[in-house]
Write a structure and sequence with these properties.
Layout: E1 3-4, H1 10-17, E2 23-30, E3 34-35, E4 38-47, H2 49-67, E5 71-77, E6 79-81, E7 86-94, H3 97-114, E8 117-123, E9 128-130, H4 136-139
Parallel strand pairs: 1-5
Antiparallel strand pairs: 2-7, 3-4, 4-6, 4-8, 5-7, 8-9
Helix pairs in contact: 2-3
Length: 140
């Protein structure tokens, strides 16, 4: 599972990819209370789901191959999220910590650049806007 409309549960995610590697790394991204100097009170994530699933799977495969890690798994949440909610989780298992850190960093940066997930921020003053980001042609 790469996309979910439910809260991301970390324990099953860790258990589903656990193995006897020497390093396990969990990265989570959460909805923060400010962006570009504006107070935020929530987000909405939408996606072109088939393309997003394909891109997330490709990123995991690339991370596993490029950094020789045993497992890379990404889950991104869609829908309405509140402050502090987890929007993305990345789990990497590797023989050594350096490769796990590098693969995790690669995965989040590639996700931001290539996956057609769209973020709409809601501000405390009642305003809302979609953030600049991924274009569909880059995901194809």
């Amino acid at each position: 599972m790469h996309l979910t409309h439910n809260a991301i549960a970390l324990e099953p995610l860790l258990a589903s990819t656990s193995n006897a590697c020497g390093a396990s790394l969990l990265f989570t991204g959460t909805v923060r209370e400010h962006n570009e100097g504006r107070p935020v009170n929530g987000m909405r994530y939408t996606a072109h789901e088939p393309l997003a699933e394909k891109a997330l799977a490709e990123i995991c495969r690339e991370a596993e191959q490029q950094f020789a890690v045993a497992t890379c798994h990404i889950v991104h949440r869609l829908g309405e999220l509140r402050l502090g909610d987890i929007s993305v989780a990345i789990v990497v298992h590797s023989a050594h910590r350096a490769a796990a850190y590098e693969a995790s960093r690669f995965a989040i940066e590639a996700l931001k650049a290539r996956v057609p997930i769209f973020k709409q921020e809601f501000y405390t003053d009642g305003d809302a806007r979609y953030l600049d980001g991924q274009t569909l042609d880059a995901a194809l």
